[in-house]
């Protein structure tokens, strides 16, 4: 099973989601069965580490994002991943526009897995530290729901 998180530049929200899901998969004993990655719609930050504020907020909750590097969405991602999860509606629109005909991947919003159907993870980039904490709270709730979805699918495939 393969999961890809997508935000605008891949330096705040999507790497935070990647780190959080990795942790929850470890806790659930599923880390060896699920590949997790993140990317951005744009190429502004390709090769760069996550934003220092995102790294600091994540570190305060025991998540180390320092090894992650930004990359841009690639057309091949639609065939490589089972789930492509956008952080907001603008990202989702781009995914739907780029989605190849016949793509079987689940393309949707991350927060649907937290019971917040249709809600976006707000971009904390231009705000203060509280925005990064809110992202962590939202991503954590969605990550827990996503782990349960992945567990069900993996058990059904077994």
Automatic annotation (TrEMBL):
Active site: 7 (nucleophile), 13 (nucleophile), 123 (proton donor)
Top-level taxon in the UniProt lineage: Bacteria
Keyword presence, Hydrolase: yes
EC number: 3.1.3.48
First and last residue of the signal peptide: none
Domain Phosphotyrosine protein phosphatase I, residue spans: 1-149
InterPro entries registered for this protein in UniProt: LMW_PTPase, Ptyr_pPase, Ptyr_pPase_sf, Tyr_phospatase_low_mol_wt
Keywords for this protein: Hydrolase, Protein phosphatase
Listed Gene3D superfamilies: 3.40.50.2300
Stored SUPFAM superfamilies: Phosphotyrosine protein phosphatases I
KW Hydrolase (keyword) present: yes
UniProt-listed Pfam families: LMWPc (PF01451)
A molecular-function term among this protein's GO annotations: protein tyrosine phosphatase activity
Family, as annotated: Belongs to the low molecular weight phosphotyrosine protein phosphatase family.
Protein name per Swiss-Prot or TrEMBL: protein-tyrosine-phosphatase
Source species of the chain: Halomonas cerina
